[in-house]
Structure prediction request, 81 residues.
Amino acid sequence: MIPIRALVLCASLLALAGCSSGGAGISVSIVPGVLIGVGVNQSGRVTGNLGVGTSVPLGDSGARAGVGIGTGTVLHEPERR
Prediction:
């Protein structure tokens, strides 16, 4: 079974990053530690992403800490002329 996680971008994180819109996306683990994803923001910009990472459990808490690196590109830009 492929784990699928919905990622919702928080307005506060976007404000810290200098963005003025919100969005949502989906990522799929294709093999352990490798994710591909696609997202769309409220302006209609569609992005594609690929990343690799790893994580470790934090004691018995059920939480995990991890690191990763990735790249992304704009697949569709509705405002571009």
In short: The helical segments are 11-17. DSSP finds one helix and five strands in the chain. The two ends are 41 Å apart (CA to CA). The CA atoms of residues 1 and 45 lie 30 Å apart.
